[in-house]
Structure formats: C-alpha cells, structure tokens
C-alpha cells in the first residue's frame, strides 16, 4: 500500500487510510512565545487587560486541534480522545513554552493536530499581549514526539536538525 497525497492523475487528494490498522496514536508538539519583560510580567501576574491569557490560549489550542481538518487541506477529520495544552513560564527569557498533547485510536497520526494546538495557543497569546508588545515572536514550533503507526515511537534524534538553547534565546 502506497500512501500519497497525489492520486493516479497526479492531483492532490486525501490519502486513503482504510487498509491501515487502528492503533493508539499520540503526538506532542511545542512552540515558544518570546516577549518583552513588561508583557511577560503582565501575563505572569494575571494583569493583562484582555483577561486570563493562558486559560484563553489553552481553550483556543484545544479547539484548534479538534478543527485541524477544517484548517489544513487534506488532513483527515479525527475523533480525538484527548487534547492537552500546557504552559511553562520561562521568566529568565521572558517567554512561554507551549506543550501540546493529542491522542486517539485510529488509522492515522495526530501530528498535525498537536502542531495546530501549539500554533493556535501561541497566536492567542500574541493576540492578547500585542497591545503591550507588538514585537512578540513565535518561534520553534515543532513535533516533539510521535507514537503509533508504522514508525512506532519517534522522537527527534541527534541527527535531526535542532535549535540549541543559545539559538532559541537569540530569536
């Protein structure tokens, strides 16, 4: 079975996963939101004028994961069984690390859902904090882990291109 987004005529089409085995599929992704000290302090202290930034970003990320097939062409609509979006505040760098987790039992992976959750949570933080700091950056959105399917368990390895902590700080 060859899986491709191209049909026999070379046109874009959704991959047919009918013959694939149903298995547990898990994906984890992350993104970084870097901001000024003022914007970070308002977020951390819960003093943003638009409300609870992290609670709103969490809900936005979860909703986005559930709507990934509506946002990304050729993605399969999936019945996710778990979506989680968490935040780690990094005050030494005035940034928020977003971690997303998606899970289901199905025939296709949930990488796009995890990446979408992290991306939309990051965009929500940007939207809610941009009045204080319009120069906020969103950086290093990436897949951190994939479990299930043909590959089994995948995590970035030493041979995969990675960004060092120093490179992250410079961005």
From TrEMBL:
Catalyzes the conversion of (8S)-3',8-cyclo-7,8-dihydroguanosine 5'-triphosphate to cyclic pyranopterin monophosphate (cPMP). Residues 14-149 form the Molybdopterin cofactor biosynthesis C (MoaC) domain. It is an enzyme of class 4 (lyase). It catalyses: (8S)-3',8-cyclo-7,8-dihydroguanosine 5'-triphosphate = cyclic pyranopterin phosphate + diphosphate. It comes from Microbulbifer halophilus. HAMAP family: MoaC_B. This is Cyclic pyranopterin monophosphate synthase. Pfam families: MoaC.
């Amino acid at each position: 079975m060859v899986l491709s987004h191209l049909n026999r005529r070379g046109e874009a089409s959704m991959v047919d996963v009918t013959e694939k085995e149903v298995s547990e599929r898990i994906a984890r992704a992350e993104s970084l939101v870097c901001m000024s000290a003022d914007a970070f302090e308002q977020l951390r202290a819960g003093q943003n004028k638009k409300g609870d930034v992290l609670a709103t970003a969490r809900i936005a990320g979860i909703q986005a994961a559930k709507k990934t097939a509506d946002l990304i062409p050729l993605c399969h609509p999936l019945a996710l069984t778990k979506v989680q979006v968490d935040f780690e505040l990094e005050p030494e760098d005035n940034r928020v690390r977003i971690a997303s987790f998606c899970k289901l039992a199905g025939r296709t992976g949930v990488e796009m859902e995890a990446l979408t959750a992290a991306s939309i949570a990051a965009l929500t933080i940007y939207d809610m904090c941009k009045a204080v700091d319009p120069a906020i950056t969103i950086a290093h959105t990436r897949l951190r882990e994939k479990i299930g399917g043909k590959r089994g368990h995948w995590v970035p390895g030493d041979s995969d291109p990675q960004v060092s902590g120093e490179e992250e700080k410079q961005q």
